[in-house]
Amino acid sequence: MRPSTSAKDAPFEVALPRRAGVSLKPEHYNHILAERPDVSWFEVHPENYMGDGGPPHHYLAAIREHYALSLHGVGLSIGAAGKLDRDHIGRLKALVERYQPAQISEHLAWSTHDDGFLNDLLPLPYTEETLTTVCDHIDEVQTALGRRMLLENPATYIVFPESTYEEIEFLKEIVQRTGCGLLLDVNNVYVSCTNHNRSAEDYIDRFPLSHVGEIHLAGHAEDTDDTGARLLIDSHDRRVVDDVWELYDRAIRRAGALPTLIEWDSDIPTWPVLFAEAQHANAILAPNGAQQSTKPASHELA
Amino acid sequence: MSWRDTQNAFATAVRDPAMDVPDAVGPRGSGVPVARFNVYRNNSAVSLTEAIADSYPVVRALVGEDFFTAMARQYVDGHVPSSPVLIHYGGSFADFIEAFEPAQSLPFLADIARVEWAWVQAYHAKDCDSINTEALQAANAEALPASRLTLHPSLHLIQSNWPVVSIWSAHQIEDLEARQTALSEIDQAAECGVIVRPEFEVQVQLVQPPIRQLLASFQDGATLGEAAEALEPDDVGDFGGMLSYIFSTGVVTAIGTATGAEIGAAINQD
């Protein structure tokens, strides 16, 4: 099932609707089923649906009947030096078969170590060694699932002086070698570039957008480090800031409309707040070739 | 340094805030960015502590936010999840609480945690249709003593020296004044509970001790006859009533039909 060489060079075939989707949270299950709001797709962390049964599966199955789905993993630990967890790949495969998501994605990060799962997306140096490791792991996942995945650029707080690749070059190399697509998290770009004193505009301008199958937008927290320098933390707990909307607009004007997720994972807002963020993204996508809504105009903003 | 070695050093330092930031990280030519590395330490410890808090809301309500966070943080420091599926993280929290010195003034706290863990596991358990009392009535009476019951995958049994089912139930009352009243009316008695999710909602039911005992026998694979025999003599007389009750709660998913030989053996025993 390894994609052919020619497929690796080709632009990523976008699978999700080219409109805004939002993170699916239990707080909104009933509202979504009752009102069928006009968002085009939902994204979940597959790890939250790896129980054997119960209400989470009931709701996900019911919502999947009406909306496209994206599975965005946080537990594969693609960047770890050790072997991938076969059991976890098996659980992911079972979910993919059950829910037939339009897209699956993971992070350029690691979260599992010999001792166990640390529940954070931890960084890696960008070297020949880690490039080989990451590509082997992506090959393994794509082979097991029989489909291409997307890899997301990380939000980072430190850098590794030993890195020999810039992040974008590293990602491009992964795409070339594995045929995977990329998930461009614009908030992560803003967070990382601010933290490491780089130009976020330059990062966006150099990003290989033809390989992007999905975009993430989220809120972040502001802090300072020991030296008083700005330290942004990827928190997914608030609205997207104006600077990130501007970067997003910059990316979309160059790439055309792409499936865009409003990612919100803690301090979950009421539905209208989340929906308004999705509408903001749709407003930017609309003049750039967004798919038309397939649903009747809703009264969500009222 | 290999990536494996660097990763080892990184993971160890994430787990231990007293350690120095690993040598492998840091912006070129600058000092050690402790606050930056601490973001990873904080994300890991806080998110795992929140995972524990999500699973144990009644324990949290009983001890208060600050005490709970300190206790859960200490648990997290000693227990890294073995899997990224956090639904199954925190199963040893009750044992931890039992040995946690500052919580000794609340001797029932560990059993409350056991109720909450059972609730979470029941919530995520495999879905399965139950059979009701009509299925029991329809069963061949002669075959029943040698029959075995298949119990619902979500079933958990609770046996405590404390009124933990009542305390747990009182905490489901949202109105704080009404909750306080309910708590003040609880007898300080031992309790047994049955936790099961026959359909959508997890049920937490206070039951008499012989009901729990019967279900425990069925869980161990006992036949109806064997389970009845294991009851205290005073309880045996109500076996039929207890069986009907058990079926009415949705914990039974099948009656295993006894073979002819098993029926014969059961009759000979009598």
Written overview of the protein:
The complex is a heterodimer of chains A (302) and B (270). Chain A is of the alpha/beta class. Chain A has a single domain, classed as TIM Barrel, CATH 3.20.20.150. Chain A contains 10 helices and 12 strands. In chain A, a hairpin with a 2-residue loop joins strand 5 (110-113) and strand 6. The longest helix of chain A is centred in the middle third of the chain and has 18 residues, at 128-145. Chain A is globular. Chain A starts with a helix and ends in a 17-residue tail after the last helix. With 270 residues, chain B is mainly alpha-helical. Chain B has 2 domains: 1-106, no CATH class; 127-270, no CATH class. Helix content of chain B is 53%, strand content 9%. In chain B, the strands form 2 sheets. In chain B, strands 2-3-4 form a 3-stranded antiparallel sheet. Chain B has a two-stranded antiparallel sheet with strand order 1-5. In chain B, helix 6 crosses helix 8 (164-170). The longest helix of chain B is centred in the first third of the chain and has 22 residues, at 34-55. Chain B is elongated. Classes of the chains: A alpha/beta (302), B mainly alpha (270). At the A-B interface, helix 3, helix 4, strand 5, strand 6 and helix 5 of A face helix 1, helix 2 and helix 6 of B.
Helix content of chain A: 25-40%
Give the number of domains of chain A: 1
CATH hierarchy class name of chain A = Alpha Beta
Computed Rg of chain B: 25 Å
User: Most extensive chain contact?
Assistant: A-B, 55 and 48 residues
- Approximately how much beta-strand content do the residues of chain B carry? 5-15%
Low-confidence stretches of chain A: 1-6, 296-302
- SSE succession of chain B: HHHHHHHEEHHEEHHHHEH
Mean pLDDT of chain A: 93
Q: Characterize the quaternary organization of these chains.
A: heterodimer
